[in-house]
Design goal:
189 residues, seven-stranded mixed β-sheet, binds 5-O-phosphono-beta-D-ribofuranosylamine
């Protein structure tokens, strides 16, 4: 069975969408562990509820941080690494050793509204301010540049005239919860 490792910093709802897909037999895989930089991440509770091991690795001077992540990955040996709302940059050494085996979910139609500073509500605010009528979400492979690896799949979501960053973000998140399990299913086949 293919092994997944998740990285998350936030509430972990995307992480939960994959836990659910596995429990409902929509994906055949196991989750070997969760890595987070944030001791307050909601993803930790979600992992514990499902007996998924957790490593809290706060950001520290580069080498130490990288080494701790490398050690966990050496222990957990994932076939696929999933970044689900992880806000730190993945060390280059990890990107090098897991080429085309790291994916990320982003709440816009990349290449639009990606890169440094485009996360959470900042993305949706920029979409609304630009007057775009369509936004969405993207799953892509991770390379050394923020949000710039090749795109695997996207879902479009209309922007409504009265949308706020919050309302748009909520509608996109619902689609993220479908997109991420679907892409994982496709990749581990
Ligand atoms: C999602 O919008 C995802 O696209 C982005 O960070 C957010 C994480 O949300 N990368 P959650 O923690 O999965 O609820």
């Amino acid at each position: 069975m293919k092994k997944l490792v998740f990285f998350a910093s936030g509430s972990g709802s995307n992480f939960q969408s994959v836990i659910n897909a596995i429990e409902n037999n929509k994906i055949t895989a196991s989750i070997s562990g969760l890595i987070t930089d944030n001791p307050g991440s909601g993803a930790i509770e979600r992992a514990k509820k499902h007996n998924i091991p957790v490593a809290v690795i706060p950001f520290s001077p580069k080498s130490h941080f990288s080494i701790q992540i490398e050690q966990k990955l050496a222990e957990w040996k994932p076939d696929l690494i999933v970044l689900a709302g992880y806000l730190k940059k993945i060390p280059d050494s990890v990107i090098e050793s897991f080429k085309n085996r790291i994916i990320n979910i982003h709440p816009s139609l990349l290449p639009k509204y990606g890169g440094k500073g485009f996360y959470g509500q900042h993305v949706h605010r920029a979409v609304i301010e630009a007057g775009d009528t369509v936004s969405g979400c993207t799953v892509h492979f991770v390379n050394g540049e923020y949000d710039r690896g090749s795109i695997i799949k996207q879902i479009e979501v209309p922007v409504k005239p009265d949308d706020t960053p919050e309302s748009l973000g909520k509608r996109i998140l619902i689609e993220e919860h479908k997109l991420l399990p679907n892409v994982i299913k496709q990749l581990i086949k």
